[in-house]
Amino acid sequence: MTEDLELIFDEFKSSNSKTLVHLENELSRVRAGKASPAMLNGVMVDYYGCPTPIQQVANVSTMDARTITVQPWEKNMLNEIAKGIMNANLGLNPQNNGEVLLIAVPPLTEERRRDLVKKAKAEGEHAKVGVRNNRKDSMDMIKDLKSEGLSEDLAKDSEEQIQQITNGFIKKIDELLEVKEKDIMTV
Description:
It is a single chain. The chain has a four-stranded antiparallel β-sheet, covered by helices on one side. The chain has helices spanning 2-29, 78-87, 110-147, 152-185; strands spanning 44-47, 50-53, 58-64, 67-72, 94-96, 101-104. A hairpin with a 2-residue loop joins strand 1 (44-47) and strand 2. The longest helix has 38 residues, at 110-147. By secondary structure, the protein is an alpha+beta fold. The chain folds into two domains: 2-29 and 109-185, Topoisomerase I, Chain A, domain 4; 37-104, Gyrase A, domain 2, CATH 3.30.1360.40.
């Protein structure tokens, strides 16, 4: 029975770690006023009729704190990449100079910063819901083990341990959100 409990704990921690990684990826897409190649992570480009991530058709980098450069590996892809960036609804307007795309990242207004903080908090809430769903699944597995003969005390201890792990992950989510909020609100 204890091997089953260890398996439940390992699976629970693994699921929650994946939730944290997903949250970090989502938060990296929320821009904080500085240009970052990660801002274009979700952009898909029509590469000869096939939707392809922008990183697979071009080199994305930053020239300075306000400018992103996109250098395609094939010059004839410049217009398709620009179209993909426009279709992604990121509020960015790429300028084509014949060699590379230059994207000026506009400074954030106070209102836009607040909106981005709300978006970041919404992503954090989604992550917390994911952690709670993982907790529920683990608790259900412990109840199943209890019906198969797991002792009452061991089940209770396991449920408390699951709750402690949950609290730890919720705390990590809150810390990530706090750092991101500070990053967004810093002018």
